């Protein structure tokens, strides 16, 4: 955005913050408004789309310390701040400023706005080159204008919601941010709240600098059976007390709709994790693993015969105390 637009826009008012607001207050205000006017929440709403764009512009300037300093300087000049009071007795007007640069009064010579900014604590305008018109229409002044250093453009923030299969398999999605829509590929294996940085998809750089990035926060819907664990999948596998105690071969469902059979060793404890290699997510370099956590299923209701059988089982086990080692180790 050209800096000549800055004197006509009150970015503080756009975000609803005071002129002395700190960076955290500005960021909080931006996130609230960006969420409120986000195109995903306001489809086909031109007013909301324009508000979303204005909020993004305001935050891009006020979140950058140098841009904010320059913006405040320009707004001060445009609004008749204390350093630019009207001419007259006791008042230093624009003609006084011209004289600071060797001018003899209004219209006598042209001045470089970058020099004005430097005199009053600002920075050279990043949107113009030496000798080019500044934000007030003044021409360059000899060798006072300087070539600004290239600066990377601001990043833009957006988010995307994926179904579980989209997340584990990867998918091509449309992203909307800063009034633009782009199409990109989300890689396989992303997890909830993960951030993906798309290089060069942010705001344009200044003075030849590279573009900023687009930072995408991924939200993944939960699956009733599976969870993402890095590039692997994870699931709980319920087994009966008999299967855990005596051992068994049981069937395990897979994400692709097929199933596989695994052997439960006799005496397997609840919480034991088994790794099924190549049964997880299909990736470019093969298929990841499925981590299966054995959970001994305790029945909620028992028949009279089942209760009697358990009592008989407990009697047959003798004086076995599963917590004896626990007490001993707790006292060490």
Explained architecture:
Helices cover about 30% and strands about 20% of the residues. The chain has about 325 residues and is of the alpha+beta class. Helix 2 (about 25-35) packs antiparallel against helix 3 (about 45-60). The model is unreliable at about 80-115 and about 120-145 (pLDDT under 50).
Present the secondary structure layout.
Elements: H1 11-15, H2 23-37, H3 46-62, H4 65-78, H5 94-100, H6 113-119, E1 156-162, H7 164-169, E2 171-177, E3 180-186, E4 195-198, E5 214-220, E6 227-229, E7 232-239, H8 241-246, E8 248-253, E9 259-264, E10 273-276, E11 282-283, E12 286-287, E13 290-296, H9 304-317, H10 324-330
Parallel strand pairs: 1-5, 7-13
Antiparallel strand pairs: 2-3, 4-5, 6-7, 8-9, 10-13, 11-12
Helix pairs in contact: 2-3
Features:
single chain, 332 residues, four-stranded mixed sheet, 21% strand
**What structural class do the secondary elements suggest?**
alpha+beta
Please give the radius of gyration in angstroms. Answer: 33 Å
- The DSSP helix count reads 10
Strand content: 15-25%
Shape: elongated
> Count the strands?
13
Q: What's the multimeric state?
A: single chain
Residues in helix, %: 25-40%
Largest beta sheet, briefly? 4 strands, mixed
Rounded to the nearest angstrom, the distance between the terminal CA atoms is 68 Å
- Please give the order of strands in the largest beta sheet: 6-7-13-10
Overall pLDDT metric: 79
Helix-strand string: HHHHHHEHEEEEEEHEEEEEEHH
Low-confidence stretches: 80-113, 119-145
